[in-house]
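Hello,

Following up on my earlier ticket. Below are the two sequence lines again, exactly as submitted.
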Amino acid sequence: MSAKLKNKGVVPSITVPDGGKWATTARNAAAELLTETGLPHRRDEYWKYTDPTTLTAPEATPAAIFKSDDPLPFSGVDAVKIVFVDGIYDPSQSDALELAGVEIETLADAAQKDIHWAGSVFGVLEGRGQSPVSRPLASYNTAMAEQGFVIRATGKAAKPVSFIYLHESETSDAVIHHTIKLDEGADLTVLENGPAAARINAVMEVEVADNAAFHHVRAQGRDHERRTATHIFARLGAESSFKSFTLTVNGVLTRNDAIIEFTGDNAHATVAGACAGDGAFHHDDTVFITHDAVNCESRQVFKKVLRNGAVGVFQGKILVQPDAQKTDGYQISQGLMLDENSTFQAKPELEIYADDVACSHGSTVGAIDETALFYLTSRGIPHKEAQDMLTLAFLGEAIDEVEDDALADDLRSLLQGWMARRHG
Amino acid sequence: MAALDDVQVKEGVDQETVEAVQSVGGKYKYGFETDIEIEYAPKGLNEDIVRLISEKNNEPEWMLEWRLSAYRRWLQMEEPDWAMVDYPEIDFQDQYYYARPKSMAEKPKSLDEVDPKLLETYAKLGIPLKEQALLAGVEAPEGDRRVAVDAVFDSVSVGTTFKDELAKAGVIFCSISEAIQDHPELVKKYLGSVVPQSDNYYATLNSAVFSDGSFVYIPEGTKCPMELSTYFRINAENTGQFERTLIIADKGAYVSYLEGCTAPQRDIAQLHAAVVELVLLEDAEIKYSTVQNWFPGDEEGKGGIYNFVTKRADCRGDRSKVMWTQVETGSAVTWKYPSCILRGDDSQGEFYSIAIANNMQQADTGTKMIHLGKNTKSRIVSKGISAGKAQNTYRGLVSMHPKAQNGRNYTQCDSLLIGDKCGAHTVPYIEVKNNSARVEHEATTSKVDDEQLFYCRQRGMDEEEAVALVVNGFCKDVLQALPMEFAMEAQALVAISLEGSVG
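Thanks for your patience. The regenerated structure is below:
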């Protein structure tokens, strides 16, 4: 008897939205799978360190709106802005859906058609990512989502697409599904920021064809009480490149899943994240990278700074299939605990079936390096400032994974803001 | 080992490594069977069998009750399925739970009375049970080290050597069945106190049906005058071996304990579910070394031992220290996580493991370091080597509890794959709830103690050599301490370089 059946979770009632043939097929398949697996619960191996109860409850736990006069992240970036309010697309606040080299369409519009290119991606990559580990929240999303975009990059995009998720209702419960396809040689950057809702379940599927490059930079909103579950499913063709970075400050619960699959040779993927948590903060990064092609490189870099009872979780896995020779897999997860009350839990896994590979992983947890601190204070830098410098340097190593300097600077200033508020 | 001969060895893996693995994974040398009359309990498992085992060992009522409560608990439990091993479902009713050589019906009073065929078996395995000769120094070559042995054959202990000399030092070393009768107060106090009856499926099964095993008590302030060892041999067909080992090191005591295991070559898989409990009081130290060489099954994966073992040390006293060393070369399926509960302040746990899986073998092994006390330290060095179509998994837990102030852990696990049909996996769990604790998990070879590496590099060694020296330097001490013949094979493994490691 499989563990899955033994520990089966609650099956929610699902009414698949009306739509055309391709969307209905995918939604029904996801709903059927969810009926088999049920929703996740604490006894699932992949939810060992994160309690999914509030993510799976029928109603979202109300979350206070966070008010700030600070400009939104990436607001200085020239991009096609697409605004969601409490998980609903708001055309009045958004730019026109026009971008050279890119087709942008709402999921709702695309789903009405019987035939659409999105049929080869929507629910397909998510479906592939359901094995060997089931991801019921993603099944739920595919079956239920009416909000989201289908985006196809046919060439090099002139500027990024920027999703802005505003949170205005204390009880909002959002389900958003983006479907993205990069044709051969295409190049696209997608930015995301904002809390979205009291609770959000977001899925992004990204098909990266041969020689294409996808960049993703995300800043998860600062609302203290928001609850977030995201999944990114990506499939990479030959010589392609995929880079995703997430910065998280605040949020009572965040679970970010990234499921990456290499199907073409000589491709590269980076999944990185930095988070700073203070008090009621639970942050979980769960990554599953499957190498099923030759000479591909994957990097996972995750840094977490925790204090006042914050909890940081990292579950990362590199799976190297039998013929994925010359794989280079790297994985580092580090926790920096600023006081005695915080928790860091990590499960950095390797599963390797090919012999000519170089895979390594490292995981460290500890307090701030006293020697480094002493070095700085002995040179006249006040203790708090020295601590901030070391904390920023620690998180900076993850931000270094962001290729675009302007975006990286934006992220650094967000972190500096966090530091300043900490002392305020 | 045909599987290895055909393998295209990748550049970077040196020939010495391949040969060392071949010599270990080669023809199983201990696959012979002793032709001896065996008395079985009826096949299958029920309360009557539990009663029968208890009766055969002349156990007091409280022991029978203990077994029965474990059995009833076991009936409610489910077999765990989280390990990365795959084997046909075990029919627990198609096994014998008790097998004893007929000649052992009356317990021999001394080794002289033991059936010569049994003594021959151990002699063939390289285990000397003749202490007289050694004592007199007649046959013992100069410098030969003395080791007291408890030999367990199927379900019973055949004999224990050097008992009298050990008794002079106050050390109790006997089979657990004897201990239940002669030292009930110690057994009652400590049995099940480290691995509770309901700990896990196999430990609970063991609690119900364990037939024999070793018992050691080292009194306060005593350094055990010689190394102790238990040699487990499965001989009978379709028989599960369920031994139980309990070692208590009182305040300031020290003992080094060695364990070896072999079984005949058979087509049908056999079950082995042991429990080992170590109790360490203040300032006590136990070194526990295992060379596990159960029959691994043939090249097609037929037969072999299913080795489901629960081993745990409880460092109850401050400044106590435990060291697990294991060389795992045998068994068709291994499921084993020797663990340390670091309860006492300043206590230390160490785990050194070399696990080699070849042909169709599957090993899921590692350790748990539970840091509860202040200033507790632990160190894990694990090397997994896979060849043929084998799967080798390191699974470990390092847990720093909120009160484990200044806890330290360093973990290093390296894997080596020889051939492209095998697998090497790493599943570490790291749980830290204390910011003064420092936990490092490294799987890259370059991250061995940098100072030691630097020292070696400075003296002209290349990095590869330096790493091998530093890591193997660790294992070597312990490997050399193993008295059994196949320690030689284990030592051959030290030659294995870290080239091609994948973490």
